[in-house]
Amino acid sequence: MLWILRRMRDEGRYLDGREIKFPPKYFLGAAASPYASDPKFQALREHKKVNAGAQFFQTNLVYDIERMEIWLNELAKRNILDKVYILVGITPLKSLKMARHMNEVPGVWVPEAILKRLETADAAGNAQEEGVQIALELSRKIRGYEKQGIHGIHIMPVNWEDIVPRIVKEAGLLPEVYASA
Fold first, then answer.
1. Cα 162 to chain center, whole Å?
2. Whether the Cβ atoms of residue 134 and residue 93 lie closer than 8 Å to each other
3. Most C-beta atoms within 10 A of its C-beta, which of 14, 67, 161, 165?
4. Is the model's pTM score more than 0.85?
């Protein structure tokens, strides 16, 4: 699909070769899964997507920065990082149950250390706040990878949209112009 859309945009042609009178202006993106399989194989998949026309990736949810770094290193070995923008997916964990469920979602992995933190917080009746703190910590760490291929964060609140402004502000994700307002 990426190749077809890229051809329509860049060559002004439909798949059957007919000319497009007004070619579309797409910024093509694709999903990326740092944890779906061995990082070397994932990097190969992402490389194929770039070759087909992907200009940006949006990752599955990231809860393990060290494993994300291994994936980034594999992308770097393939000289992909300067060819694509990467948005890292973050979802604040609202409960221990949600965190456990995330480990059943293909391509998502919540490390044992985070599960233990949420288990302790859940026992104290403070799981939501701990989930916010985890999201803030991850967001701040991911910002440290701006010069290593990461270009932004995509916060995906699952039925918890009202928490996004707090995460954006407290993680320092606002540009300076807005941060003081």
1. 20
2. yes
3. 67
4. yes
